[in-house]
Each structure stands twice: as structure tokens, then as C-alpha cells.
Amino acid sequence: MSTRSLQIGLRFSRGIFCSYVGSSCWPLQTTIKRTKVTKASSKRWVQRQGSDMYAREAKEQGLRSRAAFKLLEIDQSHKIFKAGQTVIDLGFAPGSWTQVAVDHTRPNGRVLGIDILPAAPPKGAIAVQGDFMSPLVQAGIKEYLENPDEVEKRAVEGDQTKQQESGQESGSARTREKQSAPASAVDTVDVMLSDMLMNTSGNAFRDHATSMDLSNVALDFALDTLRPGGSFVCKFYAGGEDSLLERRLRSAFDRVKREKPAASRGESREQYFVATGKKKRRKVESVKGGGGRG
Ligand SMILES: C[S@@+](CC[C@H](N)C(=O)[O-])C[C@H]1O[C@@H](n2cnc3c(N)ncnc32)[C@H](O)[C@@H]1O
């Protein structure tokens, strides 16, 4: 195992831009452990991709990954997307779900991707880099949702002035942003997607626990920000506690289904919850058993 530190800041970017929100780069020092990718394992991965029809088709259609086909199948069955919707895509990188969301919400849709890793958003989307488990990152997303036009404008302005700013200046801006980050809920999101998962460790218990943490925190955020009637699609790594997550979903949404799309590899324990028809007045406090660890 090799350990590397990454400086994670809350940065909104559009296309090839990489802009700070105003001057708010909140440096959250995050240590990410990475398993060394050996030559043999990367060769096996390349071979598998080559013989995989979804990977081939994704390449042909200009989609950033084969994962797009999972969301396309889910949308075909559950009719999640409509023109003009606001969509949040948690764990968006490399961005094929975001591409599907942009395409299916035209015209006038708005798609925001969040990922802990740096990645340029697909055309038509905006992205923020940060650890979604951080309350500061969640506050930044809520700030965006409360006034997306303003934040996008500031992102462009911030990009123009960023190069002139010193580290010290962004430190004081950070304090201002922390103080002004809104805590209020904003019911403006139509669809919340979460495909978040780091590389699995091979330890089924640990991978399941990590996945439940991510899913519960994503659901808490969805309860705060989804409109009544909104939809939540969430990847999870199956295991003993997924029935608790399902129970929470059932208390907050009219319909909840487990899905294993054809493009999801048979040997993988990943599945998806598709929850549609968010009930009115279902907030975190009324839907017990949340992650709440953020
Ligand atoms: C399977 S990939 C998503 C693929 C994506 N849906 C697509 O179609 O291209 C999972 C992503 O979740 C991200 N992720 C995992 N944990 C995260 C966290 N705590 N905050 C933000 N992103 C996270 C990973 O960095 C990774 O890019």
C-alpha cells in the first residue's frame, strides 16, 4: 500500500475551467490510501475492458465509461429524467452518468457533479471537487442550490482572479465562506444520483460498511434538498445492513426498488436502490437511522 496526501478544496468547475466559488477554497486535508496498481492487474483490467461490449459501446458513443448503461437502463424502467430538471450526481467522475443526466434533462436542465477526485465535468454540467462526507462540502452544495446562477457567475469571476490571489488571501476568504455557509434545507433538486464508492478492498464486511455510510449520508442530503416527488438513485454494496437503508428509503419515498442493471458485473456485489416519489415533509429528523457521521 502506498499513502498519498491530496489537498481537497471545494472548487466548482465548468468545462475546462477549474474555478473556486468566489475565493472559497476550503482546504480539507484528506489522506487517501491507494492500493498499488500492479502491471499484471492493469493488464487484466485492459483485457477485460476490451472484451466488454458495454465498454466498447461507451467508447463508440463518446461516453466516459460503461457505467452510463446502468443509469440508462434504470431510467428506461423508472422514467427518472425530464427536461429542465436539477440533478445532483454524487461521485460523478469520470462523468458518464453526468453525460446521461445532461442529455436527458435538455433543455434547461442543470447538472452538478461532485467527486473527491479532480475531474473536468462533461459539457453542460458544473462540478465541484471535495469529499461529500464533509459538512463543509455539503454546505457549499446547498449554497449553490440556493442561488445557482450567482454561484456560477462567481465561479467564472473567481477563475479570472484566482491567479492573482495569494494563499493568505484565500485563507481569509475561507473564514468568510465558513461563516456564511447556509444551513437551511433547499427543496430544489429533482433527482439525486449517488454512484459513490472508492475501490473495494476485498473485505466484504468493510466494503459494505463504507458503502452504507456513503449511502446514508447521501440519503440524509437528499431528504434535505429533494423536492416532494423527487427521485434518489443510489449504488450500494450488498450486505447485512442494506435492509435498514431500504427501510429508511421506504419511509421517505412512495416507491423503492432494488436493481441490478445488466451492465453491472455479475461478480460484483453492487446493486442500486431506485427510490421515486419523495413524500412531502420527509426530512432527516423524521426518517430514523441516518448516517449522521458527516
Ligand atoms: C464508480 S465511480 C462513479 C462513476 C460515474 N457514475 C460515471 O458514470 O462515470 C465512483 C466515484 O465515487 C467517488 N467517491 C467515492 N467516495 C466519495 C466521497 N466521499 N466524496 C465524493 N466522491 C466520492 C470516487 O472518487 C469515484 O470517482
Automatic annotation (TrEMBL):
KW Protein biosynthesis (keyword) present: no
Gene3D superfamilies: Vaccinia Virus protein VP39
UniProt domain Ribosomal RNA methyltransferase FtsJ: residue ranges: 64-278
Chain segments carrying region Disordered: 153-185, 258-294
Gene Ontology terms, MF aspect: methyltransferase activity
Annotated Basic and acidic residues bias: 153-162, 258-270
Bias-annotated ranges (Polar residues): 163-173
Keyword set, alphabetical order: Methyltransferase, rRNA processing, S-adenosyl-L-methionine, Transferase
Official protein name in the record: rRNA methyltransferase 2, mitochondrial
Taxonomic source organism: Myxozyma melibiosi
